[in-house]
Structure formats: structure tokens, C-alpha cells
Structure prediction request, 461 residues.
Amino acid sequence: MPVVQVEGVHKRFGAVEVLKGIDLAVEGGEVVAIIGRSGSGKSTLLRCINGLEQIQSGRIEVSGHSIDPSGKGLRELRKDVGIVFQSYNLFPHLRVGENIMLAPRIVLGVSKAEARSRAEETLAEVGLAERFDAWPDNLSGGQQQRVAIARSLAMRPKVMLFDEVTSALDPELTGEVLATMERLARHGMTMLLVTHEMGFARRVATTTVFMHQGKVWEMGPSERIFGAPETPELRQFLGGGLK
Amino acid sequence: MIRQFTQSEFLFILASARWTLLLTVMSMLLGGLLGFLVALARTSRLAPLRALAAGWIGVIQGVPVLMLLFLSYYGLALAGFDLPPLIAATVSMALYASGFLGEIWRGSIQAVPWQQWEASSALAFSRPQQYRYVILPQAMRIAIPPTVGFLVQLVKNTSIVSIIGVVELARAGNLVNNATFQPFKVFGTVAAIYFVICWPISLLARRLEGRLHARRAG
Prediction:
């Protein structure tokens, strides 16, 4: 059974329909890259998957929790779905370690010792073990983003969503964040990522989804999508994007 | 008989400053409590609560403190609640503070970037948990300078309760002046005491503000 199942999802912002009937299934351990022009609905789709955007119709199911237009059961679902944003969004009033420990402590109710060991473990996983007591403001953008990843991982999610997580970073800092994500993928994490890093999508993603005008325009194994695009829209997008 | 402005008159004025201080502290505490609820209601997801809080702030800010004072002293007396002047004064100053603090804190809560709400709700925080652990700690930092600034206004505005006969700093000055006819000495003294109370608070506000900006910049 797929970990993420999206069926007939429609989403409108006012009169503008951004998602026009999306169907998508992601199996456990799969890494799905979502590519497309800005305005194609790719970020919106990602945000719908953990209920940050409400859908008007259709159904989204993530590891047994479902979201429908009523928005019930969202908190349960969010315990299983981590999301990392373009702008990191660390809690600036808490140290790095506290940023990571907070959600496991108060949402999952784990002990302080357990939360601490989770924080140490996930920080080590993103290569920042020695920054446990640092303030977020004193970290580089790339480091902050890796802390944000660790903060999500400490909830032990079944799926991780990445929303253009390197778009706000200087080129020399994107590498460390992408390497962290690649390692997560290798360890078997189920991941959906919206990205402009085509090389990364081609190399790391098992499946790539090309979105165009609010629809899944073309999807398939990344090698096929990048190597032999079928639709003229995707060919044009890749041609423009790779110049 | 005209009295001289001697040490005993000075001490009388100085001692009456305790009522100014008590009134300030009580109305800050009670008004702060109520103002906090107003700020929470004003930022609530429930539209009727928001409207209620907006109405409260609008009315309190749109009505002179003097009217609040007359309403709680003469008004409630007519309605059968015979409040001692000090209680009526505390009630009206607390209501006044609640309107202004509610608005100051509403602004502070809304000054926390919306991404902080989003990041915490994505981590499955409940709404109360978001307030408690993420939003309010950040809003508090933003709120400290304007809150302390308001406190200075509150100290000075307590002088208005002299009208219903509470012998606080301003009223004590008035009484002494009536007996001595030395307005420059008497009210100069009164003004100096207000200044001695307010100046350190203003300094504190400025320092806190400076520190806040330094943190932001750093």
C-alpha cells in the first residue's frame, strides 16, 4: 500500500484553480521529485499533503491518516509527515538542541532524556552534532536548514516533504543541504521534494513528476523523464532549465 | 491661616506617593491580566471573539479615562454598588490599561512572523502549544519596550483619580497648595516626585529597546 496517496485533489485560491485534479501515489522508500514552472502548483501540492493548505475536493491519505476538505485529524497526520521550508523557520528564541527537542517533548510526550538523545542523534545525522547549544541566528543558512531537517526527523516521520529547501541559499551552501537529503534518501526515507535542482532530482529521485498548469503533466522514472521527455511542455521546460 | 511649606508638608506629599504607586501596580496587574485576554481574543481564530476584543479596545481607547472614572464611581454608586474611591479608581485605571495593553500585545503577537505559526503547526503543535512555546515567548520580547512605555503613561495618568477624592500624589499637592499658597514650591515638588518615579522606567524602556535592536542586528 502506498505511503502517500493523492486522489482527485482540487485546490482553489479564490477564483484561481491551482490544482486541477491531482492523482499521485508514493510507495515507502520512494523519492519523488516534483518539478515545474513557478505557478504550476508544485509547492501547493506539497503543502496540501500535510494540510497547510486546505483542499476543496478529493482525498489525501498519508500512512493511514486521511485529509479531506473538512480538515479533521490533521494533527495525527502531521506527526507522521515532516516538512522543511525554503526559509528554515527555526524558533529563534530557542537554542538548536531545544528547537529539535520541543516537538517530541510536547507533541509526542517523550521524556526529556529521550528527546535529548533524539536531538543528538538527528543533529549527528545532519552533521551538526557540535552545534547543540548554538543559537539559530549564529548559524549559516545551510546549517539552519540542516537543523530544520533534524527538527523534523526527531519526530520520526514516515514521510519527509521538502519545499524548495535550497532556493534561499547561496550556491556554495546548497551542496551541504543536498548531501544531507541524499543521505536520508539512501537510508530509505520516503521523500517528496519540490526542487529546481534538476541534477539532484535526476540523480536521487526514483520518480519525477512534472507539473504544468495545475496538473500532473508527465511522470515516470527520473531517468526516463530527464532522458526522454514525451510532452513538448516538459521538453521545453528542461531545455530552458538546463541552459 | 496660611501655613508654611515645611518638612511636614513635604513628607505628607511624599507619603501620598504610595497611593500613586499602589494604584499603578494594581491597575497594571489587573489591566494586564484583562489586556492579555483581550490580546488573545483579538488574535483568535473565532471571528466573534475578535470582534468583541476589537470593540473593547475601540471603546476604551475612544473614551476619556475621566468618563471611566465617573462611571465606576458615580455610575456604580447609583446602581447600588457603593465603591470606595480607591476601588473605583483601581477599577477604572485597570479598564483603561486593559484597552491599551490589549492593543499593544495584539500588535506584538502579530509581529511574530507567520512562518513561526506554520512551522509549529507542521510539527503538529496544538493552538495553545503554539502560543505557549513559540509565539508568546517571541511576542514578549517585542512587547517589552512599548509596555514599559505605557507604564510611564499609567503612572502619570493616575493623577486623574484625585477628582474623586483619592489622596494620591497630585491630590496631596493640591491640598498642601490650598493651605500654603506656594504653588511653585508645592507643584514643583509634586512634579519632581513624578519625575523620580517615571525617569528610571523610561530609561529602562530605552535600554530594553536598544538591547532588542542589538539582538536583531546581531
Summary: Chain B has eight helices and no strands.
